[in-house]
Protein: Secreted protein
Organism: uncultured Solirubrobacterales bacterium
Amino acid sequence: MPAEHLSPLPILFVDVDGVISLFGFPSHDDPPGSYHYVDGIIHCLSATAGERLRRLAERFELVWATGWEERANEYLPRLLDLEAPQLPTLTFDGRAVFGTAHWKVEAIDEYAGDRPAAWLDDNLDERCERWARERPAPTLLVPTDPAIGLDKEHVERLLRFADEVAGAAPGRA
Ligand SMILES: [Mg+2]
């Protein structure tokens, strides 16, 4: 972990369920992605998330922040055609609860340290918002709709954030 902390890029914490793996979309429409089995469970992986994450990877250090933990690296870089074969991955010591995100805050905070950080997740709640408000470093929460996942506007907002952080005077970032 310390080596990654030398990265000059801001961090982007990436949730998987509700950001990359989609659910809750209308069943009578064409699915918004392709279906893949991951450890025996079927997931609809967004057709556009891979290309969008590749774009974001040019400006952020991407870090998996998902209950998938190590399984994210086993499947997703290949299925999403990401350039990095592995991303840094947060682990949560069995605290993962589907449908919520507050259990991620501690591990995210520890990894982020004093670096600028953004967080993409479909379950951001009051505890996550409080964490973001109280951080001294620039912080951006990007909530997603689990039926749509990572969309164009999210990417644009994140790239603006990366520009702002890059333009901030050293020591003020
Ligand atoms: Mg999620």
About this structure: The first strand starts at residue 11 and ends at 14. The pocket of magnesium ion is lined by residues 15, 17-18, 121-123 (CB under 6 Å).
